[in-house]
Specification:
The chain is mainly alpha-helical and 618 residues long. The protein contains 27 helices and nine strands. The strands form four sheets. It has a three-stranded antiparallel beta sheet. The protein has a two-stranded antiparallel sheet with strand order 4-5. The N and C termini lie far apart (75 Å).
Length: 618
């Protein structure tokens, strides 16, 4: 009996087991490995790949309604690139589910090997796959780091050029005849074709104006016969450097399709304006923007972020009562710009939206394909669409990084760049948390750390210190009494462990937003006190602050990087260190030295996370 081939053995996927073929091919390849550890690697890589499919549907809208995954249909030449895109946009250090670069590299290598074997056995729709670079730790940082000022200036300049085309299409100004050129069909010598025939772009324009009557045509079977020179010969032979026929149409401002060349500049613009996670950006629907929130009364965007609890809201002007007029004006302008960008996209896609498939009709970013394989097909912008467009932009404009290398250009990098911009505008750490849609402040801190934005922490330290010293001055001017019960009066303050408090019943918004906060009860987030606007630190508190500093430092050395909320404690440590720095502190050198001497005799538990008891004889 003849042995069955993989092609004959592969199972049919079902609605109950939509990934049956993926399971099969991974298991088959793993079974050929004799090392048990290697087999286990393929097993964990399979679990990771199925997680990718469940969260992204392989960046294929059709899988939303029919999840059955066929290798012959869904493993195309970009199969590996899609996984790389998912890793680059989702595996962020400090976020839930983060995998180390070594783990990710192992998964990626196994997935690549399986897909290559599937291609070799003719189980896929592609005869070859786009081999992207492997996953490395340094690559991960480059993919997500903020653009430098010079890089951002170059990108902004290029984006403005690309947007001119989008807005020209939006205005529907129509094509105006130029009268240039002559009939390219009349050249008499073969060698003169480049100068006198189709090789002269002005002659192509003459043909467009006088024969095609200023109406763009596409290269279907009929048109290839009728307009062979214009559609095939000239663009392919003479005008590849400007993008062939699509490049010619773009140069003239007459797109035959509402393709990604029209839509993607606006996608990039909105990515820069909002700083949204790219998955959330591509998933925006046509009704995402609202002028007035029912509770706050400010403009906001509704978006979906799977890893942070589903549907979320980005308030574009969070505090209408903000006393900083510069920030207030910036926020107002920001909201108006975002609104206009979204309205432009809606207007551009109005016609094609009518014919779009029902499952994507409500998506904000739609486009018509101009590729020969899917000519005129309406789809929604995905990570793959964006990746291809970004690569074109880098090549088209020769974008370079500060070190002279080809720029790593992707929309994900607009997110940390926007954080940079917000920090420059004076937006604080907790508003950054809200702006970025993080459920936990630790995620924001980790994001800042992983994107080399530590100057944000320096700004936060300065803000915290300014607040501490301002409250200290306020307290000195008043005759204050400690409250013995709940009394909300500015002449009373409340005793605390590490410091005192102006009003624990009215904590700042970052505490009120925590899940375990109960309105009306006193704040219990003592480990956040140094960042709180109600904090009161007097001379008597300094010894405890020095003890807390010592305990945090001991925890770092003992637990060797495994301290929970490590970045938060680093920020706390930074504030305490500055409190005890004579050149920066408003406490005298005498007070600082006194506190250090008193602290030497103290052994008190301030924070159970960092407290390590003193052991006699230790």
């Amino acid at each position: 009996m003849e042995k069955l081939t993989l092609k004959e053995m592969i199972p049919e996927p079902t609605y109950k087991k939509p990934y049956a073929q993926v399971d099969f091919i991974f298991q088959q390849i793993a079974s050929l490995k004799y090392n048990r550890h290697t087999q286990e690697n393929y097993k964990t890589a399979l679990a990771f790949y199925k997680k990718f499919l469940k969260e992204t549907n392989n960046y294929d809208n059709s899988l939303s309604s029919d999840p059955r995954f066929y290798l012959k249909k869904h493993w195309d030449e970009f199969a590996l690139l899609k996984v790389k895109t998912y890793i680059d946009t989702n595996n962020i250090k400090g976020t839930e589910g983060y995998l180390t670069s070594h783990t990710i590299a192992g998964h990626f290598s196994a997935i690549r090997h399986v897909i290559e074997e599937a291609v070799g056995n003719k189980l896929t729709v592609a005869n070859d796959i786009y081999i992207t670079s492997g996953v490395q730790a340094v690559r991960e940082t480059e993919q997500r780091s903020a653009y430098s000022k010079r890089e951002m200036e170059s990108i902004t300049e290029i984006l403005q050029k690309e947007l001119r085309y989008s807005y020209k299409v939006l205005k529907k100004e129509g094509y105006k005849k130029t009268g240039v050129g002559r009939d390219p069909r009349n050249h008499t010598k073969m060698g003169a074709a480049k100068e006198d025939g189709w090789g002269c772009i002005e002659n192509c324009r003459w043909y467009f104006e006088n024969v095609l009557e200023c109406k763009p045509v596409i290269a279907d079977v009929d048109n290839k016969t009728k307009h062979q020179g214009f559609l095939a010969y000239a663009p392919r032979k003479y005008f590849q450097e400007i993008g062939g026929l699509p490049g010619i149409y773009k140069k003239w401002g007459v797109p035959p399709f509402m393709d990604s060349e029209v839509i993607m500049p606006l996608v990039a613009k909105l990515a820069l304006e909002t700083g949204l996670n790219t998955n959330a950006l591509y998933d925006l629907n046509v009704h995402c923007y609202n002028d007035t929130h029912p509770l706050s009364g400010v403009p906001y965007i509704k978006y979906y972020k799977l890893r942070s609890g589903g549907e979320k809201e980005m308030h574009l002007n969070p505090d209408k009562n903000d006393k900083d007029l510069q920030i207030k004006q910036y926020r107002h302008n920001q909201a108006q710009i975002i609104k206009k960008t979204i309205e432009a996209v809606i207007e551009l896609t109005k016609e094609i939206r009518r014919n779009a498939p029902d499952n994507i009709k409500r998506k904000l970013f739609l486009y018509e394909s101009s590729s020969q394989a899917h000519l005129g097909k309406i789809g929604s912008i995905t990570a793959r669409t964006a990746h291809v467009w970004c690569a074109k932009i880098v090549k088209r404009h020769n974008l370079q990084s500060d070190n002279g290398q080809r720029l790593i250009f992707n929309l994900s990098r607009f997110r940390p760049t926007r954080v940079t911009n917000l920090v420059e505008k004076g937006i604080d750490l907790f508003e950054l948390q809200y702006e970025m849609g993080h459920a936990d402040i630790r995620t924001t801190l980790n994001y800042i750390e992983s994107n080399q934005l530590n100057y944000v922490a320096k700004r936060e330290t300065k803000k915290a210190l300014d607040n501490i010293f301002l409250n200290n001055s306020w307290a000195k001017e008043k005759s204050l009494t400690y409250a013995t019960s709940r009394i909300e009066d500015e002449n009373f303050i409340y005793k605390g462990l590490l410091c005192d408090c102006k009003n624990p019943f009215n904590p700042p918004k970052e505490v009120k937003s925590l899940k375990n906060y109960v309105s009306g009860q006193a704040c219990s987030r003592y480990n956040m006190c140094l960042f709180c606007e109600n904090v009161l630190i007097f001379k008597k508190h300094l010894p405890l602050a020095w003890v807390y500093k010592r305990q945090i430092e001991t925890s770092f050395s003992k637990k060797q990087g495994d301290l929970p909320n490590e970045l938060f404690y680093k920020r706390t440590l930074d504030i305490i260190e500055h409190l005890f720095e004579p050149l920066e502190s408003e406490f005298s050198e005498y007070d600082i030295e006194w506190a250090k001497r008193v602290a030497e005799e103290m052994d008190v538990m301030i924070d159970p996370v960092t407290y390590i008891p003193t052991v006699d004889g230790g």
